[in-house]
Each structure stands twice: as C-alpha cells, then as structure tokens.
Design brief:
single chain, alpha+beta, two-stranded antiparallel ribbon, two-stranded antiparallel sheet, about 10% helix, elongated
C-alpha cells in the first residue's frame, strides 16, 4: 500500500499527516491552533457541564470552549495545529492510497 507523499521546495520527500482527532478533555480552548490554521479546518465550540456542545451560547450555561474539526477536508497535513498546541491535543495520520 502506497502512502501519499509530496516534495518540499528543496526536493526532499515529505509525508503530510492530516488531523484525525482533538482530545477535548485536554483542550483548554486557547485558540492558538485556530489562529495558525489558514485553511478553515477548525472551529471553537462551547460545551456545558455535561460535556455536550451548546448551540446558543447566550441562552445556555457554558462550562468551557474547545476546538473541534469543522472542515477536515480542508486540512493540508502540515501539522501546524499540533506543533503550537501546548496540551498535545491533536492526533494526525498519513493517508494510505
């Protein structure tokens, strides 16, 4: 089975690893990953005390905010989100063709 690879500007082989999951128990909702991702992959969402996502932030009580994967298809596999995450919340994987 072949793995998707690319080339760097210098001609070296590079294997992109795409975002698979975010550990929401570890996530503190700081937003660093959201700011560094230029491809609209992530979205910050509010959670209540039961760990359920809150749709209307004005009406429901919010326990915390966590990052979610909103548009996984936009991920280019650069892993910048994981590199900037101080809590090691991210899981990435290469794609096998």
């Amino acid at each position: 089975m072949a793995t998707l690879t690319g080339l760097t500007f210098g001609g070296k082989t590079w294997t992109p690893k795409f975002v698979q999951a975010i550990n929401q128990d570890k996530c503190i909702g700081c937003g660093r990953c959201f700011k560094i991702c230029g491809h609209n992959v992530l979205e910050l969402k509010a959670m209540n005390e039961e760990g359920e996502f809150v749709e209307n932030e004005e009406d429901d009580e919010i326990e915390k905010k966590v990052m979610t994967i909103a548009n996984a298809d936009n991920c280019i596999g650069c892993e910048a989100c994981a590199k900037i995450c101080s809590k090691n919340c991210y899981t990435h994987a290469a794609i096998d063709n």
